[in-house]
Amino acid sequence: MNAIAVEGHPSEARIARRETLGQLVRSKTFIAGALIIAFWAICAIAGSAIAPQDPLAQSSSVLAGPGAHHLFGTDQLGRDVFSRVLAGSRSILTVALAATVFAIVCGTSVGLLTGYFRGAVDDVVSRLVDAVLSLPLIVVAVVIVVALGHSTPTLVIVVGILFTPLVSRTVRAAVLAERELDYVPAARLRGEHSPYIMFSEILPNITGPIIVEGTVRLGYAIFTVAGLTFLGFGVQPPSPDWALQIADNYTLLPAGTYWWTVLFPALAIASLVIAINLMADGISQVLER
Amino acid sequence: MSTDAAPPLELVDLDVVYRVRGREREVLRGVTLTVGPGEAYGLVGESGCGKSTTALAVVGYLPRNGRVTGGSIRVAGDDVLSLSKDELRQLRAERLSMVYQNPGDALNPSIRIGRQLAEVFTVRGIPRAEALTLSHNVLQKVQIADPESVMQRYPHQLSGGMQQRVVIAMALANDPALLILDEPTTGLDATVEAEVLDLVAALQAELHTAVLFISHNLGVIRKMCRRVGVLYAGRLVEEGPVETILHDPRHPYTVGLIRCIPRGGVRKDHGRLDSIPGFLPSIGEQPDGCVFVDRCAIAQSICSTEEPALQRVTPGHASRCHFHEQARDTPRAISEDSGRSLAVDRSLEPLVRVDDLAKTFVQHGHQIHALDGVTAAIWPGETLGLVGESGSGKTTFARTLLGLVEPTRGEVELDGRRLPGQLSQRSQEDVRRLQIIFQNPDSALNRRHTVRRIILRSLRKLADLKGSAAEQRMLSLASEVRLAERHLTVRPTQLSGGLKQRVAIARAFAGNPRLVVCDEPTSALDVSVQAAILNLLVDLQADEKVAYLFISHDIGVVRYISDRIAVLYLGRLMELGPADVVFEGPHHPYTEALLSAVPTIDGGGRDRIKLAGEIPSAAEPPSGCVFHTRCHRKVGEICELEEPPLVEAEEGHLMRCHIPLEELRQLQTAPREVATA
After folding, report:
1. Which residue of B has its CA nearest to A7?
2. Is B440 on the interface with A (CB under 8 A)?
3. In whole angstroms, how far apart are CA B544 and each of B23, B341, B509?
4. Which of the four pLDDT bands, split at 50, 70 and 90, describes residue A288?
C-alpha cells in the first residue's frame, strides 16, 4: 500500500518521515559532517591498503619534511606521516565507537529503569550518577586502566562506564516525560509487565534524544580516548594511532623544525571531532524540533 | 488615516495561503465580514476551518509559511496589509488586542503580574509609577478582588480563570477599537467559563469595544454575540443574527452542526444523534463547486460544478448555498431510530460496587484528599455519568476503580468479589473486565506502533488470541468500531482525532470488558465527530451490555448518555440519582449552579447562579459541608459546622445537603415561575 489517504489527509506521517530524511540530507551541517566521517571510516576499514606506504615501515629518511615523496614528511623512525595519518583512524574510531555503544546500551537501560520506576531506585542511582559525574574523568580512567592493565577491551569498558551516567541522565529525563502519557497506563491495563512497557512501549518513543546523545557522546569519546592514549594509558604502540604519534613526537616541537610530525595527526583528530559535532547538530535540529 | 466612521474590522475577500511541503495551500478563500462599532461578532466552525487563521491574519501574526494573497484587512480604517512594521506595532499597542485560548502561555512565567501589566502602558510612553496605578485600576475592572496581591504574584500562582482575567485586563488596558478572543474559555471549567464570559460581556457593554469572538461552541457564541459567521474549509458559508442562524439555518453545514449537538434533554434511548458524514476537505484542495458538496445530503449536479455565491436570505442573513430554501429539510445522515435495547435491570446484583473509597495524595508534606469516602454501584449495561469541576476527584475516582491508583481506604468489588487495590495484584481476568477510553487519543495510543499492532497486542493480552484467530477478531472488532481495513496498517499520527478515538475504543473492547471508564472521550473532538463516537458507544452498550463510567464536563453529552448521574465536589459525592431527576431537579445547590453555568444553544435557560470564588484546595477542605464557602443556598451556621450525611431524599436519589428535598424543590422552582410570569 503506497498512498494511503486517510480522511482526506494523504499519509501525512509517511511524508513526514521521508521529510525528516530529506531535511537531514538538505542540512549542510549534517552533510559536511557526514562526508568527513565517511572519509575517516573508509580509511579505518581499508587502512594500510590505501596508504601509499606501509605505515609501520621504517626507512632511512628520518624526519624528512613534507614533499613529493613523503606528502606529510616522515617521523623520527623514518615512517611516512601521511600513511600513518590515514591508517591511524582505525584504532581511535573503533575504541571510541565501541565505548559509545557500550555507554548508550548501559545508560539507556539505567535511564529507563530509574525514569520508569522512580522512587528509591531512582534516588540511589541518581545520587550515584551525580557522584560519578563529580569525578575528573581522565584521572579516574587512568587509575582504572593502571589497576586492570592495558588492553583494548579494558579501554572500551572504562570509557563506556564513565559515559554511562551522562547517557542515563538524558534518557531518564525523556522517560519521565513519556511515562506521563496515557499509553503507559493503557499498557498496564492490558496486563503488560514493566520490562515490556519500558522496552517496547517507551523506548521506541525516545530514540530521537538517544541518537542525538549518542552522536554527542562519540565526539567526547574520541577526545577521551585520544587523551588517554597521549598519556600512555590508551592505545599502545606500535599502532599508528594519532594520539600516539603526537605523544611520540611532541618533544621535538620546541626545536620548531619538525612540526609536521605533530600537526597532521592533530588536525586529523580535530577534523574528526568537528565532523561528529556537525553531524550531531544537524541531527538534533531535525529530530528535536 | 482612520476615521471614526470606519468599522472596527472590515475583511474584504481575504485569501490566505499556507506553504506546506513546497506547495501553497489555500486556507481562507474570499472571507468577507464586518464587525461594527460595539458589536460582538462570533466566528464558529470545526477545527481546521480557518477560524484562528482569520484572527492571526488580522493581527499580522500569521506563521512564517502563511501569506495573505488577496483581499484587504482594515482595522478601524487602517489597512493592516500596507502598514510598516512600526505602524503595525503601534496598531497592536493602541487599537488592537487579542486574547488566546491558553492564558498560561500568554503570560511570561518569570515576570510578576504587576510588571507585565504595566508594560502595556509603559510601551506607550506612560511613566512607570502612573502605569502601575493604571494597572491596579484595570485589574479592578476585571473584578479581581485583591489587585495589590495579584500584582505581586507570578502567573503560575494564579488559577486558570484568574490568569485569563489578567490577560483580558491587558487586552482591554488601552481601550482598543477591536478585541479578538480566540476560544478564550475553552480550557476553563464551566463555572469559571461562565464568570469569564459574564465579565467579557459586561466590559464590552461598558467600554463599547468591538469584539471578534472565535469559538467552536455554538452555546458560547449564542451567549456572547449578536451576529455569527459560520466558517467551513476557509469559506464563510453562512452569516446572520445568532438566533436566526440557530433557529432557521440556511446552509446544510450549519444545519448538520446544530443537529449534532445533544441538547434539550435528549437521551440515548430517544435515538441516535445525527452526524455530518464524510470529512473536511484536506487543506489546499481546490473544489470547482461548493466546498461542502462531498458531505451535503441535498447536493445536486450544479453544486459540484459551480460555487454558490453568498445569497441573501433576509436582510442581514446570507447563505452560500444554491438551495438554501431546502437546507432546513436536509435529511438526517444517521437514522434516528436505532431499535437499541438499553434497559438496565436493577434487580440484579450490581456489577461494580465501591465502598467508602478514599485517596489521599501527599505532596510537599501536604495531604491532598482527592477522594473522600465515595460509595456507589454500577449495574450491568448501565452508564453512570460523573460530573464536577476540575479538582473534584472525577479522574482519581476512575483511576482508583481501575487499580491505576491504590486507594488509601475503602474497596472496590466486581461481581461481589473484592478486588485488590493494586493493578499488579489483580488477575488478568479482572484487568480484562475493567477498561478505559482516555480523553486524549494522541497520548493514549503509542505513536510508534501501528494500529494493527495496538489492537493485536490487546487481543493477545486480554482475549488470549494469537495468529489467525487474533487476525480475524481484529477485523471484526475494527468493523464494529467502523474502522476501515486500510486504517489498520498506519500509525495513529496518520489518523484524524475521531479515527484515533475509534482505535482506542477497539482496544478497550478487545477483551469484552464489563465496565469501561470513558474519561471525557469526546472533549478533544469536533461536535460532528463527537456525535458519531457517542452513537458508537451507545450501540456497543446495546450489543454487549457493557457498563460505562462516563466522565464529562459537557452537560449535554452526559445527559444524553447517562442512566444515572453522580456529582462530585472536592472528592465527595454530593448527589447521585437518575439522570432526569438530577437534571430536572430538585437538585443539590452545587448541581444547580453547575447546570446554570453551561451556555446552551436552546432558548430561555435559567438565570445563572454565580458561585463565589473558586474550588477550595483539597489540601484544606472547608469545615462542615465542603460546599458551604460557595453555596448560594447556605442556611446558616449548621453548614459550616456539620457535614450533612448522604441521604436518600427520594427513591434512588441520594443527596448531601442540610436543606430537605421539598424545601429545595420550592426554592428552585420559585424564581423561574416568577421569571416566566
Report:
1. B279
2. yes
3. 48, 11, 10
4. low
Of A7, A19, A189, the CB nearest to B431: A189
* Chain A residue numbers touching B399 (CB-CB < 8 A): 185
Answer whether B461 sits within 8 Å of A191, measured CB to CB. Answer: yes
Distances in Å between the alpha carbon of B658 and those of B16, B624, B665? 59, 11, 13
Q: Which of B404, B432, B434 sits opposite A185 (nearest CB)?
A: B404
Among B440, B490, B494, B551, the strongest candidate for a mutation testing the A interface, having the largest count of A CBs within 10 A, is B494
Interhelix angle A12-26/A28-46, rounded to 10 degrees, is 70
What is the residue extent of each domain of chain A? Answer: 12-52+79-287
In whole angstroms, give the CA distance from residue B405 to residue B439. 18
φ, ψ of residue B573 in degrees (nearest 5): -80, 120
d(CA B11, CA B180): 14
Decide if B449 and A19 are in contact by the 8 Å CB cutoff: no
> In angstroms, what separates the C-alpha of A17 from chain B's closest C-alpha?
11
Contact B448 A13 (CB under 8 A): no
| DSSP letter assigned to residue B143 | T
3-state secondary structure of A61: coil
Find out whether B487 and B495 touch, Cβ atoms under 8 Å.
Answer: yes
* Minimal Cβ distance to A205: which of B285, B440, B448: B448
Distances (CA, A) of B247 to B180, B241, B596: 26, 10, 22
Whether residue A243 contacts residue A226, with contact meaning beta carbons closer than 8 Å, is answered with: yes
User: Residue type at B595?
Assistant: L
Query: How does A201-216 read in b/e, with b if 16+ C-beta sit within 10 Å?
Result: bbbebbebbbebbbbb
- Parallel, antiparallel or unpaired: strands B383-387 and B547-551: parallel
Chain A nearest C-alpha distance from B590 (Å): 31
ipTM of the shown complex:
0.82
pLDDT score at A113: 94
Domains defined along chain B, listed by start: 1-95+178-225 (3.40.50.300), 105-175 (no CATH), 250-329 (no CATH), 352-567 (3.40.50.300), 571-676 (no CATH)
pLDDT band of A97, cuts 50, 70, 90 = very high
CATH number, domain A12-52+79-287: 1.10.3720.10
- Chain A interface disruption, residue of B232, B295, B445, B446, most A CBs within 10 A: B446
Mean pLDDT lowest among A61-65, A249-253, B605-609, B644-648: B605-609
B331 backbone dihedrals φ, ψ, rounded to 5°: -65, 155
User: pLDDT tens across B576-585, in order?
Assistant: 999 989 988 7
C-alpha dihedral sign at B153, B155, B159, B165: positive
Per-residue HEC secondary structure of B437-466 comes to ECCCHHHHCCCCCCHHHHHHHHHHHHCCCC
d(CA B494, CA A15): 10
B276 in A contact zone (CB under 8 Å): no
Cβ(B353)–Cβ(B377) under 8 Å?
yes
Tell me the pLDDT tens digit for each residue of B159-179.
Answer: 888 898 899 999 988 888 999
Q: Which residues of chain B fall short of a pLDDT of 70?
A: 1-4, 338-339, 603-606, 670-677
Which chain B residues contact residue A9 at CB under 8 A?
282, 494, 496
Q: Do A186 and B282 touch (CB under 8 A)?
A: no
Report the alpha-carbon angle B391-B396-B399, nearest 5: 155
Contact A13 B21 (CB under 8 A): no
Q: What's the length of chain B? A: 677
Contact across the interface for A6 and B489, Cβ inside 8 Å: no
SS3 assignment, position B395: helix
- Asked whether the beta carbons of B643 and B561 are under 8 A apart, the reply is no
